[in-house]
Amino acid sequence: MKQSQMFIPTMKEKPADAESASHRLLLRGGFIRQNAAGIYSYLPLGYKIIKKIETIIREEMDGTGSQELLMPAMQPAELWHETGRWDVYGPELMRLKDRHGRYFALGATGEELITSLVRDFLNSYKKLPMSVYQIQTKFRDEKRPRFGLLRGREFIMKDAYTFHDSAESLDKAYWDMYHAYCRIFERCGLKYRAVLADSGAIGGKDTHEFQALADIGEDTIAYSDSSDYAANLEMAAVLETDGSEKGDSLPLEKVSGNQEISGDIKIAAHWFKTRTDTVVVFIKAEDEINDVKVKNVLNTDLIEPLEDVNPDPINPEKDVLIFADNALKHLSRTAFYNKTEDATYFHLDPDRDLSIQQYDDLRFIKEGDLSPDGQGIIKFARGIEIGQVFKLGTKYSEAMNATYLDADGKAKPLIMGCYGIGVSRTLSAVCEQYHDDNGMIWPKSLAPFTIHLITVNPKNEEQFKLSDQLYQQLLNQGYDVLWDDRRERPGVKFADSELIGCPVQVIVGKKAAENIIELAARREKERVETSISEMASAISDLLETLD
Amino acid sequence: MKQSQMFIPTMKEKPADAESASHRLLLRGGFIRQNAAGIYSYLPLGYKIIKKIETIIREEMDGTGSQELLMPAMQPAELWHETGRWDVYGPELMRLKDRHGRYFALGATGEELITSLVRDFLNSYKKLPMSVYQIQTKFRDEKRPRFGLLRGREFIMKDAYTFHDSAESLDKAYWDMYHAYCRIFERCGLKYRAVLADSGAIGGKDTHEFQALADIGEDTIAYSDSSDYAANLEMAAVLETDGSEKGDSLPLEKVSGNQEISGDIKIAAHWFKTRTDTVVVFIKAEDEINDVKVKNVLNTDLIEPLEDVNPDPINPEKDVLIFADNALKHLSRTAFYNKTEDATYFHLDPDRDLSIQQYDDLRFIKEGDLSPDGQGIIKFARGIEIGQVFKLGTKYSEAMNATYLDADGKAKPLIMGCYGIGVSRTLSAVCEQYHDDNGMIWPKSLAPFTIHLITVNPKNEEQFKLSDQLYQQLLNQGYDVLWDDRRERPGVKFADSELIGCPVQVIVGKKAAENIIELAARREKERVETSISEMASAISDLLETLD
């Protein structure tokens, strides 16, 4: 395509409010434009990349036997009432009323809609398993949209749903999807980790998140430095490492006031409320309490910290649940400041002095801890969540009465899995991994154009003629070529070319009359003079060396 | 694809509320499902067809040099305020408020958004012309959604926009689009007419609608029986046919009451209000007044009929505008009942007795009238509007201050064109033209699968083995094949096959052991026995004969 005819509004200046490299460079390269907070247009260059990502996704999803369909963005509120999510989802769910006063959600996710679509059809075990997917615009009214496409309010998502009559069938689909996701992200050129993630206490069982590694990532991944182990920070199990005998206890001492502590190990108490219970959890003061682990141990979907209230954990009310982190099992001399009494306890032996009902793994893992699989040491990395596979189980089918008849003619709820990929997020993640200060350096599989043909001075007849000839030649060879035929200063052209980031640059300049051009990879600074007779093989050799 | 694994919820019964063939058959064939009034899901079969239509559109749009982009569905209200359309558009515009209380429109059309996107970039005549398009879900809160996808509230549309610095440049783009549209609809197999349409008095100039011929169509097309002439009913000009001398007048007579009329030609008066004027239009009582023509003659964007008021047209107030249809120019003896006076006028000579300020073409054309191009006689047909090309001019660029600098450095508003295709409507229109009572008969270019391979009894080992072998063979030959491998009764299978409507059926039945299959075109009743050695050539011969 001729650049003079294209809509590529590059920006010289760094946009002030763009906090991440992907946000900044997608704007500067003319790939996207913001229309409102968290709402973007994909301009021709950006949309070319989106379509390439979508093609990769389609090929791999079709390969699993999944069928593409397209559900509407407007979802009747009645469906969300069936599962109770109309009330639970909160302000992130965009809602609107039609001219007749009927309420709709703008699809943030599609479980209700797909379950309503299949529940009449999937009435027999003979029709199972079944797998469907869609690539669709989704809506979530994020409180603080940021990082451009990374946390937007309108975004493109691939969501897939599978339906089964057994846990084994779901398991097979789950791992088929898992491996398809690996292929998708590999084909996009991404460095990523598939990490264990939290499925919540109610609903699913297994779930993995696919995290693209990037400093800007909002999630922390705990991974082993010497094995494949990776988990979301909140999911990483802490090994009980201290197998040594507990030391001797000393008599409990109580001193009024908040005393300085030395010798004893300081512990802290964290209070929570669930729908039914009040809970206190003791952990070492240097450790960080992990709400997700507390929630999972309590087998509840909701816990709220009680921050401003400070009941007495030493002499608790009768019905308070008292938990402690595993670490306390091995401690005989701890210290604790009890705010209620304004007193500090010394030589507190948790087992002896606290009415602990259960020890469990309730803290966040730390860098330097042993890896939970026993191999290596835990390190942290930041990740951008680009996909998730999830065993839903029967949460939605039960709520929405989506049943099939099994071989014995008995009605059972469909067993479901759901699987998401953030398409626009994937674009951002690729940006975070493939750029330098001057702009994008696209991997071959996603580059909007493979070759950027740059005519240094198009007013020069020889340069223009040679460029025109090479443009046709490269197109005939099957390359996707962007020809900068614009009458702009060379400085502008080269700056734009770096922003746009095509993998290979073919530069037609002063030596056009001698049939010599310059060839460069976008990621290198070096340009190599090449005669046009050797250009074809030089380009294919160069492409071989690139991601 | 194996039918046993596909989501094709066919329906035996005719859905009660489906008024049109396309609506009924898209539901019955398992192509779509309704989620709410005017809101549908495209199931795997239906979405395969949608994607084929989109591919044709993309190829032809790219061929015009237009660039694909994707704008968001959520459009900030501020943009619609700039053009005043937030207030003018009415209840068809879906609106919502985000969590911060900011208003958005769900895109019904994209003029505001695209103008806001390009206005900073297209700052020089050097960057013009430019052409962009998108294929996107659109929203319109139709009061009475009907006919399935034909008048839905959420639908897929291709909208394109071009930007120019001269009327000639716009004209070229307009006709390029016009011809691209012709190719698109031809490739979809549609019988259609490109018809002159109303552009409204303000805004654009030229506009054509593309109407697919179908009895269910909501628009009436007036076309010549012996030329290419075609126009929307309201746009078809009426020729002044009566060139004969006016007959002699007789003295005006006034008789009280509403008298029977014979001899004289009865005329009627129609009253309208514009933003500034009151207007009365006289036409022959047997003719139908054409509001659009009245509006265009008055060069206004709004007229309202005054139905309940009956001012005196014979003795009108001083500032009333008095118009008459061309037909009255040639009449000397007409009769008129004046309600205000409750009196009938006889021998009324319009020229002599009415203070007519202007004669013009103000009535609807009728079947049997001469064609406006002078060739042939006008006939009527019903059409489904599937596309429109429109010269917008500077309506949006002026309102939104989208200007470019011309060669003299003078700021001028961008000249715009816009061009739409209803993608889901096109699917419906194809259905209306390609079906019989039993289901769809898809044209080859859009068929979800070219070949339906039907195993009559998959429990029979010979039938199943041969089917499996033929399935692989046909796939290897590059055909898109749906294999009905389901353990269903033959009657169910053949009924489903007719509903699904693949162009070619390959039936593996009792003669499987003899390596004989049956071949049929979906549109014929006849099945032909073919040996499997001759199958390949028989299929390609058969396909040659089909649309």
From TrEMBL, chains A, B:
Main location as per UniProt: cytoplasm
Domain called Aminoacyl-transfer RNA synthetases class-II family profile: residue spans: 38-443
Subcellular location: Cytoplasm
CDD domains membership: ProRS_anticodon_short (cd00861), ProRS_core_prok (cd00779)
Pfam families the record matches: HGTP_anticodon, tRNA-synt_2b
Keyword Transcription regulation recorded: no
Keywords per UniProt: Aminoacyl-tRNA synthetase, ATP-binding, Cytoplasm, Ligase, Nucleotide-binding, Protein biosynthesis
EC number of this enzyme: 6.1.1.15
Molecular function terms, GO-annotated: proline-tRNA ligase activity
Catalytic function, reaction form: tRNA(Pro) + L-proline + ATP = L-prolyl-tRNA(Pro) + AMP + diphosphate
SUPFAM superfamilies for the chain: Class II aaRS ABD-related (SSF52954), Class II aaRS and biotin synthetases (SSF55681)
Subunit structure comment from the entry: Homodimer.
Domain notes: Consists of three domains: the N-terminal catalytic domain, the editing domain and the C-terminal anticodon-binding domain.
Family membership noted in the UniProt record: Belongs to the class-II aminoacyl-tRNA synthetase family. ProS type 1 subfamily.
NCBIfam families for this protein: PRK09194.1, proS_fam_II
Job of this protein: Catalyzes the attachment of proline to tRNA(Pro) in a two-step reaction: proline is first activated by ATP to form Pro-AMP and then transferred to the acceptor end of tRNA(Pro). As ProRS can inadvertently accommodate and process non-cognate amino acids such as alanine and cysteine, to avoid such errors it has two additional distinct editing activities against alanine. One activity is designated as 'pretransfer' editing and involves the tRNA(Pro)-independent hydrolysis of activated Ala-AMP.
Entry protein name: Proline--tRNA ligase
